[in-house]
Design goal:
By secondary structure, the protein is an alpha/beta fold. It has 2 domains: 142 residues, NAD(P)-binding Rossmann-like Domain (Rossmann fold), CATH 3.40.50; 190 residues, Dihydrodipicolinate Reductase, domain 2 (2-Layer Sandwich), CATH 3.30.360. Helices cover 37% and strands 22% of the residues. The protein has an 8-stranded mixed sheet. Strand 9 and strand 10 form a beta hairpin. Helix 5 runs antiparallel to helix 11.
Length: 364
């Protein structure tokens, strides 16, 4: 019997979820839910599944084994917790949520229910990302000295105007960092290890009618002593592939989307030259640099397969709730550092009190 997936939230990203599930033998989308009936009906007709207009009705469907959450970022907690309490395994689009308290509520609900929880960061499953991780674990970089992440993307004003939730603290949880660059932040922390402290600047320079940043720059000190930079923007026309640079006392590697553009180590290995040639043209899309729909779904497919294997074996998936929480914490620390002008140490003991968020919440 096929494993049934139920999709909550039938916007653009739900289409990538349905395509990912369709590529997995023994899995199928059996249901979808949206508070806008037309959206649910549209996805249901495309996928061939049951449309629901009330979440409890979908969660009561015995053909739904796994629920994927595709709602706006600040509306992940409620359906995720409800799904866990209904005994469904849970996959949440990035970010896991927009505050640590809401992240923790999801993690707690899934642990109490004994269901698998995963956060969607497909970049970790790309072959190029896995190769960098293996090189770190093999100590090919020697002492890691620098780890940098650059996400210089472009989003038009029309993009933000297309959805009332976009660019808001309440539902987007932040701007270029929380919505767009969080994929790369997660990848950087996975490769470099936890962050110890951050200082930062953020600004909104090129857009109107949004509450959040469209440019951000942070300096980072990692727990292993290495230093790094995180830059993020949705105001860098025309938009460029995201990039990660790892440097150490014995090696350097540069990742641009799925391409490895630099791979040089003090102690070379026989396969290095072929690896660099093979991985220098892997990116098949725009990577979301200028068009949020210009991404592939193969990373989602690999992540969903990992979740199914975790369900069967009882192990945690590669990116569980705690892993998903880590990048949210780092970004919240960057926001706090930018707002206060202070260096913020991690781990955070509680959600930072962001005056910008409070200002807009009080105005509602």
């Amino acid at each position: 019997m096929a494993t049934g997936f139920g999709i909550v939230g039938c916007g653009m990203i739900a289409g990538f979820h349905s395509k990912a599930v369709a590529d997995i033998p023994g899995a199928q989308v059996t249901a979808c839910f949206d508070t806008i009936p037309e959206a649910a009906d549209r996805l249901a007709s495309q996928v061939g599944c049951q449309a629901y207009y009330r979440l409890p009705d979908m969660l009561a469907d015995p053909q739904v084994d796994v629920v994927t959450i595709c709602t706006p970022s600040g509306a992940h907690m409620e359906p995720a917790v409800a799904a866990a309490k209904a005994g469904k395994h849970v996959i949440v689009e990035k970010p896991l949520e927009i505050t640590l308290k809401r992240c923790d509520a999801i993690i707690r609900a899934c642990e109490e229910a004994g269901v698998v929880l995963a956060t969607i960061f497909p970049s970790r499953y790309h072959e190029s990302s896995q190769l960098l991780k293996q090189a770190v674990e093999k100590n090919r970089f020697g002492r890691l000295t620098m780890g940098d992440a650059y996400v210089k993307w472009y989003r038009s004003q029309e993009y933000y105007d297309s959805g009332a939730w976009r660019g808001t603290w309440k539902l987007d949880g932040g701007g270029a960092l929380m919505n767009q660059a969080i994929h790369t932040v997660d990848l950087l922390l996975w490769l470099m290890g936890p962050v110890a402290a951050v200082s930062a600047h953020t600004a909104m320079l090129a857009h109107e009618r949004i509450e959040v940043e469209d440019v951000a720059a942070a300096t980072v000190r990692f727990e292993n002593g290495a230093i790094g930079v995180i830059q993020a923007s949705t105001a860098a026309y025309p938009g460029f592939l995201k990039r990660i640079e790892l440097h150490g006392s014995a090696g350097t590697a540069v990742l641009e989307e799925e391409d490895i553009s630099a791979w040089q180590f003090e102690k070379s290995e026989p396969e290095d030259e072929d690896l660099l040639k093979r991985m220098a043209g892997k990116t098949q899309t725009g990577g979301g640099a200028a068009d949020p729909a210009a991404i592939g779904h193969h990373g989602h497919t690999a992540l969903f397969q990992d979740v199914l294997q975790a369900m069967e074996s009882g192990r945690a998936p590669l990116i569980d709730g705690h892993q998903g929480r880590r990048s949210v914490e780092a970004i919240l620390a960057i926001y706090a550092a930018a707002e206060t002008g202070q260096t913020i140490s991690l781990p955070l003991k509680h959600d930072p009190v962001l005056q910008a968020r409070q200002q807009f919440e009080q105005a509602e």
